[in-house]
Amino acid sequence: MKTLLVSLAAAVIVPAAAASEISITYSAEFQEKLESDYGAKEGERLSKEIRSDLERELRKANVDPARISVIIVDAKPNRPTMQQMSDEPGLDMLRSKSIGGMDLEGTAYNASGEAVAELQYDWYETNIQMVGASGVWGDAKRASSRFARKFAEKLSE
């Protein structure tokens, strides 16, 4: 009985494996926006969010592709980034707001390197009044979460 309980506890503690490799890159146009407008660190923040969302949704769906490649085609912040505020002193984190979101493309591959699922997904807020208490990348994070859920669902089919 004790062995059974230890085995069950171990099964609960160890989460299901997520993709062994998740690579996130930027389209040329978005890379240019990062370098000239948003700041390079903003791309890292978005990449971390996408990776976290994908890992969570893949675990929940119990799918484990060998590799996933994601391209951030475009993203728009709701609030000014640190780079934007340093470039334009009139911007204010609390009062400056805009409609944000993100456009993503993802491909999952099996161990043989064959594409097993593809998803192109974009979501941008359409109502400026919904931005309210949103952080810098609030709408982009929502797009990332929705993309990850839809991608995991597609892999489960």
* SSE sequence, one letter per element: HEHHEHEEH
Return the structural class. Answer: alpha+beta
User: Per the principal axes of the C-alpha atoms, what is the gross shape?
Assistant: elongated
Q: At CATH's second level, what is the architecture?
A: 3-Layer(aba) Sandwich
The number of helical elements comes to: 5
Would you give the CATH topology?
Rossmann fold
Strand content: 15-25%
According to DSSP, the number of beta strands is 4
Task: For the record, give the distance between the C-alpha atoms at the N and C termini, rounded to a whole number.
Answer: 37 Å
Helical percentage: 40-55%
Q: What's the quaternary structure here? A: single chain
Question: What is the CATH class name?
Answer: Alpha Beta
State mean pLDDT (0 to 100 scale): 88
